[in-house]
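Subject: for your reference before the review

Hello V.,

The reviewers asked for a structural picture of the protein, and I figured it would be easier to keep everything in one thread rather than splitting it across files. Below is the amino acid sequence we used in the manuscript, unchanged from the supplementary table.
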Amino acid sequence: MKQIRSRVLTSQRRRRTGDHPVRDASISADSPRTIITSLRLHAICVIATLIAASIFTLTEHDDHRHTFWCAFEMIVQTLLVIVGTIFFRTRIHLLHDTSVVQPILVMVVTLTLLCEPFQRFFLGHGHPFEVLVMHSQSNLMLALAVCGFRITFQRLAMLIAVFLTIFSCTISNASGLLPLTILFAIGCLVWLVASWWETVDCRLLRTEKSRRPLVWLGASVAVPLLLMLSAAGFGANTVTTALQGFMPSSGGTGQFDPFSRGGVKDGDALVAGSQNVKSFAPLEDAPFMDSDKPSLYDMFNDLFDEPPKIIKDQQRAVALPPEELLHVHQKMAEAKQAGREFSLLRSEKKADRKRIQDLDTHAAFYVAGRVPARFRMEVYQHFDGVTWYPLSDSDPNSETSRCTKIRQIEDRHWLSIPLAGRGFEMHSGSDTHSLKVANLQGNVIPTPPGTVGVSIDRVDREDMYHVSSTGLVSLQRKTIPEMTPIAVASECVVRDRIAENSLVASLHRNATVTSVLPEGLETDRIRRLAEQWTHGLPRGWPQIAAIEARLREHAVVDRETKPADDCESPVAEFLFELQRGPEYLFASSAASLLRSLGYSTRLISGFYAHPKNYDNRKQHTAVFARDAHFWCEVFIGSDAWITIEATPGYEILGPPPTFFERLMQRAQQLFLAAVANAVPLTAAVLLLSLMVAYRRTVRERMLTWHWRWLAGGNVDQRTLRLAALIDDRLHLAGQPRPAGTTLLRWSKRADLSHVHKALQQLANRADTARYAPTIGDSASNTHSESQLRELLLLECQLSVRSLQRPEPTTSAQPTVATT
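And here is what came back from the structure prediction:
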C-alpha cells in the first residue's frame, strides 16, 4: 500500500507540473488520454495470443493429415507477429493514431474472407463456415496484438483469444490442446495482473464518475432483437436460415456443404436402421424395405380420375405391317393385364379426395438441382386413338438396348449410359440432380431426358440396374429403397442448335408403331389441321416447333374438363370442340399432329419438378402427386428423341447459363423489379438524392438535436460536443476551420467579426474543458445549470446563418451631372 500511495503522490505531482511520462509527447495535444503500454505488457499479450492462435491451428487441422502444414502455419504466423510487433513498436510516433490502425485491421479481416472463394474455386478445398469466421477472428486477434502498444487493442485481442480458445476446445479432440490451454490460462492470468499494476495509477487518479450509456446499451440490444423478430415474421428466408445455424452447435438447417465438418449428418452418411427404417432420415446403406406406397398409375387415377369400367365396342383400325400386328396385340394384352396402359377417356366419378390430400401432403420424391425439370417414368409408343400402350424390351423390332457399364468417378460408381444424337451437336453443358424417393412404388428411377449416368452409393454392380431401349432406368428389384439418395446426370439440349440444323427430323422416320395413327375421318381432320398450322414451313424442326407453339396457344389447361366416355377420338374432340383439358390431351394431340405429318412420336409420363415447390431452407424441390405430367417426344434421327412441351405453363430446362448470361438474367430481374416497383423506387431515389445533396444540413440538424436532447455527461463534455457542433456549422456555412488552426484563432477572421465574441467565449470554454476539466463534484448544481444555459445561448447565437459571410454593403455615390 505504501508503494501504491507513493506512486499516486508522484503522479499527482507530475500532473501539477505538467510532466506526463506515461503519455506520448507527440500525441498528448490531440488525445491526452492515450497511453502507450510498456514493452513487457505488450510481449505478454503477444505470447498469449500466439498460444491461442496455435490452439486454433491445431483445431483447424484436426484430421492429422496435414501435420507439416500445421507446423509451417504456426511458425509463419509467429514470425509475422514478431516482425510486425517490432515494426510497430519502433514507429509509435507515426502509427499511434487510431485512424491509421483501423484500416489495417479491416483489411486483415476482409482479406481473410475474400481468400476463401478463390481457395474453393481454384484449389478445390475450403473451410466450413464456422471455421472461416473464427479464422478471420484469429487473424484479427493477431493484428490487434501487433498493435498492442495501446491498452484498448490489447484488451480486445485478449477477449477474442479467450473466445477462440473456448471455441477450439469445444469442437476439437486434437492432441496437444490440453497443455496449450493450460499455458494460455497462465498467460491470461499474467497479463491481467501486469495490466492492472501498469494502469493502477490512472484509475486511482480518475475521480470522475463514469456513467454507463444505458440508452445506447438498450438500443444495441433492442434493435437487433426487433430485426430478428421482423425477419422471422416473413417465414423461411435467408436471415432466419442464417440465424438458425449461426453457431456450430445450433443444429442443422437442411443445407449441404461439401466443406462442412459434418453437421448433424442428415444427408449422405447416416447410420442405417435395422428395427424401424422409417424412423431414420435419408441414408445410403438403408435396408431394402417394401411398402404399400402409391404407384405412378395410382397417382394418375387419383389425379385425372379412373378410366371408365365399360367401354363401348369401337372398331378402330391401325395401319400396321402384318408381321407386327400379332406382336403388338400381344403386348397390348400384356400391358392391360399389368395395368400399364393409359386411356384418354376418364370417368367423371371423382377420385377419393382424402387420397389426393394425402398425396399432396407427402411428396413422391425430392430433387436437389436445377428446376424446372422433367423426370421420365413411363414411355408409350403405340396409340390406337383412345389408349396409349408401352412396349417392353422383349419386342424384337424395338430399338437395340443400350450398352452400359460401371465407371468410378471421384469415389462414386456411376452407371454410364451412352448419349444418343451426338452427331447433331445439340448438347451443351450437363446437369446433376440428387433424388430421394419417398412415397412412390415401383423400381423405375425418375430420370430426366438425356440421362447419361446414374449413381447410388455402394452400388457398383451393373446387373443391379436395367436400362430399357426407351432410356428408362430401373433397379433389378420390386421397389426402390425408401429415401435412398440417387444421383442422375444428364446432358442439356440447346434448341437453337437444333433449329440451325436443317437435317434434324427432315429425312428420318422410325418405321415402328411410333409413327402410325388409327384410320378414320377424325384422323383426316387432325392431318388437315396439322397441315394448316405448318403451311409454308420446310420439313423438319420448323414444323415441329410450329406444332408445339400453336398448341400452347390453341387450348387452356383444365384438369376438370375431359372428353365424354363414349367419345371415339378424344384428341379430335379436344382440338376441335373442347379446346381445354388436362396435360395428357395436350401431349397426345402433339403426338397425333406430328404423326399425321409423318414424324415418329411417343408419349412420356412422369413428373414435373416445379420451381414453386423449391424449399429455400432445405435447398431442394418437393415433387408431389399433383406434379404428375405428360409430354411428347419426337424422333429426329440417330436414336435421338427430343422433348416437345405443348402444355402452356410448363417450361423446358435449358443448358446451365454462362457467367455473362447469369449477369444478364440478374440485370433483367432487377429491371423488372424496378418497373414493378417504380413508384416507391422513384420516391426512394429522390429521397436519397435530397439527403446526399443536403447531407451537411441533415447532419447538422441531427447533431443539434442530439446535443440538445440526448447528449449526457457533465458541463465539460457538453462544452466539447458543442465545439464539435460549431465546427460542423462553420463547414456548412462555407468557412471551414483548417486542421492546424484552433477555434480561438479562427474566430479572429474578418469574416467572423460579427460573431467573434461568441466564438471566442466558446473557444475559451472548450480549452478549459479539454485541458483543465472539473474534478469531482466540486461544482454546485446551480452553477452547472447556469453554465448549461450559457451553452444553450451560445448554440443559438452561433447558427449556420450567423456564421455565413456577411454580404458586402455598398455606399451610395452622388450623381454628377455633366454638361
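For the response letter, the relevant points are probably these. The longest helix spans residues 98-123. The chain has four domains: 24-198, 287-656, 661-689, 694-772+785-803.

Happy to draft the paragraph if you're swamped.

O.
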